[in-house]
Specification:
Elements (H helix, E strand, L loop, with lengths): L1 H24 L8 H8 L3 H25 L12 E6 L7 H9 L6 E7 L4 H13 L3 E5 L7 H11 L4 E4 L10 H12 L10 E8 L5 H25 L9 E4 H7 L9 H12 L3 E11 L5 H23 L3 H4 L1 H20 L2 H11 L1 H25 L12 H18 L16
Parallel strand pairs: 1-2, 1-4, 2-3, 5-7
Antiparallel strand pairs: 4-6, 5-6
Helix pairs in contact: 3-8, 3-15, 4-5, 11-13, 11-16, 13-16, 14-15
């Protein structure tokens, strides 16, 4: 019964929201009654732009406040044992980025474990080479929990006796001070840790915008669709993202919330919500971020986002399907966050036509709203140039309306297809060396 309900509600939800959004495009030409006019006003492009600018300005202010409160000089170079786990799959050409950067980290009690899959001999061979080159590096073949990133992480954690587990993707390049800064936060020298520190220290991870136009678009999309809104969500709802990359987790956390869910495509999102429901303290660190390689082609750009949203929808379904979502406040916050993401994403799918028609009908108001939106992202980029090490501004910000529409269409595709295809597995994009 529950599965049938999900099959019906997913498409009906998308059709209803899309219908309302499309209807709002022609609101001026309709002889709408008072009730319908009120509904259409909520998706009017002027209202949506005003809300978006207010949201992003608030996110930017919270980002600046967090930077001011964080002590970039808080570093611990020798402390609890830390094992950095790098799960790889078909990453033979790029895994040296993460592994070599971690091997050079300014932290004494650190080991690095590369976890490969049995059906990926090229990555296994490269992992063995890196282990021979660097004393800190070991190679673990995931024979225990094959077939997913969550399984690779679980296999490494089970085999480890480290006090802290750090997790990184193969194409990330951690700063030499990342681990010392994160350990300082865990020990109570960070922003909100108090005497004992938080349980999880997550370091900011940015798409590297230094490549082509797709890379630049991915960076600005990350700012507006994840980073700045997440600052607001974390402040208003207390839901901070834990994740499974650029993150250091106290071992006790896994004893409390359990291992990563190998049945979830978005194991990082599921882990975040379980941490939230268990009251795990998560602190985000903004200094010494990692840079990760974004998708370079439209094919990979689309495929990567389809995978992300499939994971989002699948985790959403699992949380909303629990009776606790109706009575437990922490679970309800998680569910509301997931539903809000879906609603906002579906509305994004009509960004380009709404903005185009809005500029024709209300050029001053809509133009001012767009200027405010662009102003926020360019100011944020200027801050990142100073504190995170990005360079310049690129041209991706000009294509944000197109990126929003594409992401909205991804969400529509994923929700409609969710009932018919729920295979969980790895997804790889083309990456350089």
């Amino acid at each position: 019964m529950a599965s049938r309900l999900r099959v019906l509600l997913g498409p009906l939800f998308v059709v209803a929201v899309l219908g309302l959004a499309v209807l709002s495009l022609f609101a001026g030409a309709l002889d709408a009654g008072p009730a319908l006019s009120l509904v259409l006003l909520t998706v009017d492009v002027r209202v949506l732009l005003a809300l978006a600018v207010a949201l992003f300005v608030l996110g930017l202010l919270l980002y600046l406040l967090a930077l001011a409160r964080e002590d970039a000089d808080a570093l611990v170079v020798d402390g609890p044992s830390v094992e950095a786990v790098v799960p790889v799959y078909r990453d033979a050409s790029v895994m040296h980025r993460s592994v070599e950067a971690l091997a050079a980290a300014e932290y004494e009690n650190l080991t690095v474990t590369v976890v490969t899959e049995p059906d990926d001999p090229a990555s296994a061979e490269r992992a063995d080479e890196l282990a021979r080159e660097h004393e800190r590096v070991d190679h673990h073949v995931n024979e225990e929990h094959r077939g997913s990133k969550a399984g690779a992480l679980n296999a490494a954690i089970e085999a480890s006796d480290a006090d802290v587990i750090a997790m990184f993707d193969a194409d990330q390049e951690p700063h030499p001070n990342l681990v010392p800064h994160a350990v300082a936060a865990l020990e109570g020298d960070g922003e909100d840790g108090g005497a004992d520190g938080p349980d999880v220290a997550r370091v900011r991870s940015l798409p590297d915008p230094s490549g082509g136009i797709v890379d630049s678009v991915a960076y600005y999309e990350y700012l507006l669709l994840y980073f700045l809104p997440q600052k607001v969500v974390a402040t208003l709802l207390g839901l901070s993202f834990a994740g499974t990359r650029s993150v250091l987790v106290e071992r006790a956390v896994f004893d409390e919330v359990g291992p990563f869910s190998e049945g979830h495509l978005a194991e990082d999102l599921d882990f975040t919500h379980r941490c939230h429901q268990a009251g795990v303290a998560i602190e985000e660190l903004l200094y010494y971020p990692t840079f990760e390689e974004p998708a370079h082609t439209l094919r990979d750009y689309w495929g990567q986002r389809v995978r992300w949203m499939r994971g989002q929808v699948e985790v959403s379904g699992s949380h909303l399907g629990e009776w606790r979502a109706l009575v437990d406040p922490d679970t309800l916050v998680s569910a509301l966050t997931l539903v809000g993401t879906l609603v906002a994403g579906v509305l994004l799918s009509v960004t380009v036509p709404k903005v185009a028609l809005g500029l024709v009908a209300h050029p001053v108001v809509v133009g001012t709203g767009l200027a405010g939106l662009y102003g926020v992202v360019l100011v944020t980029r200027a801050v990142d140039d100073r504190t995170a090490g990005t360079d310049g501004f690129g041209l991706g910000w000009l294509l944000l309306p197109v990126a929003f529409s594409l992401f909205g269409l991804v969400i529509v595709q994923v929700v409609l297809a969710y009932a018919f295809d729920r295979d969980v597995g790895w997804y790889s994009v083309e990456k350089g060396t």
